């Protein structure tokens, strides 16, 4: 009803073209006398809420409708007492608390909103109101730890308004407001989700008042909560609703709000998350990753370098790939693009290892003096080789995940494109090792390169050179991985749909490859088989082929004549 009344007043303001204050002034006494005439505590909860909501609305009117006088100050003091009181003090009998929880929460919420509306009034900043303002700020701090999100949000908004008016809070008032959370931080057993949420909100408002040591203390508490036996037992069931897991997630939600110097906690924080996931037997996802990603976004460049240095570790690599592919990690992907040379270097290390291993194999084949030394040196070389193969696979996975959101990356950084192609060529030369823990690294590397090339090709409207390279890589990889999705894309989205003008462009780009020797016979055969031959054949077999974009295809009754026309159009100069 109150919201409907406010909406009606807004309509009257629009019709009469005067302010709400001007509309209400003639009825001011009739509106305010019933509210100021009786103490709030003498009224039932619903009338208290109604009266406080009405005063809040009046305080927000411009020009001002209410004066900061004794009556209003008395009402503010009553609302302040209501907001500061415990639930048991607001009912006639303690047994009524449970049945009145909703109304008590709403009452506390409207009280805080009215106190906020009063605090933003310039005339309320007089020196005589300083004690009242201090009490109100204390109530705001206290309400940040309330179990109701509605009350916490209202208190948070109130503190925001206070900080907009005065950039620095009095030291004693700040110490009093922060004391509850500091007491909770002293003992890990006292931490609750509500108190940690309150700490997070305080950090958003008062970041400069906190030090990085808060993060170190929280890391210590994480170690206390992360009991290995408990985590291993929890791995067998759903963990999202466990109290301990909720506490750990709430702790992690605080770190991205710490002061800028908190980047020094990156290693400890990521290591803690890895340790939690290992004990919970989580590999691909966990409740801890979303808050961790917020921290990584806060320090994107440092995070990219950190994970690149540890990418040979499987769990670190999985977390990095998940973060890069996550929709909320835009800043992290932006930093990854700026660190392209670092990825190129990691891929080049793998290619160098393959070349060195090949050279070593040739040398050992030519050596007959020490035959017993050959197997041992070859094994040592392969050990390094397969470690770098796994690193290259992880880098290719990261690039693939990033291209899903920034598909023009390879087009703008040719060095990365060339490094991916070199890594693919090196992987083709590496034999599969089914007995090794990294036996999937080779096919996964090849698949990630193919999918990356497909995304990059689609992003730049399938230029012939990029398309030829995609088909070459795909055709030569068909024995190692499933590549049918590429050929299906080429047929369904390109060959069947291309107009004659696009086919002519592709054919004109392909023909010089046959005479210039810029591509191998194997590569040309693959492109002919999967693109050129079907592309030319469909010109004469599919009636729905347009001459050029924007020109309608011919009807089926004219197929015979149109096929000759399309064939002539395809093969006209400069193709001939």
Q: What is this structure's SSE topology?
A:
Layout: H1 2-16, H2 20-24, H3 28-36, H4 45-59, H5 70-84, H6 101-119, H7 130-143, H8 149-165, H9 171-185, H10 193-205, H11 213-225, H12 228-234, H13 243-255, H14 266-279, H15 289-298, H16 300-309, H17 314-325, H18 330-338, H19 340-366, H20 373-403, H21 409-412, H22 414-429, H23 441-459, H24 464-476, H25 484-495, H26 500-516, H27 521-541, H28 559-570
Structure description:
It is a single chain. By secondary structure, the protein is mainly α. Helix content is 69%, strand content 0%. It contains 28 helices and no strands. Helix 8 runs parallel beside helix 10, helix 13 runs parallel beside helix 15 (289-298) and helix 25 packs across helix 27 (521-541). Mean pLDDT is 85; it is low at 368-381 and 551-560.
N-to-C series of helices and strands: HHHHHHHHHHHHHHHHHHHHHHHHHHHH
Poorly predicted regions: 368-381, 551-560
The helix/strand class is mainly alpha
What is the subunit arrangement here? single chain
Question: So how many helices?
Answer: 28
Shape: elongated
Question: Can you summarize the main beta sheet?
Answer: none
Strand content: under 5%
Rg over alpha carbons: 35 Å
What is the first-to-last residue Cα distance? Answer: 80 Å
Q: What value does the average pLDDT take?
A: 85
**Helix fraction?**
55-70%
Q: Quick one: how many beta strands?
A: 0
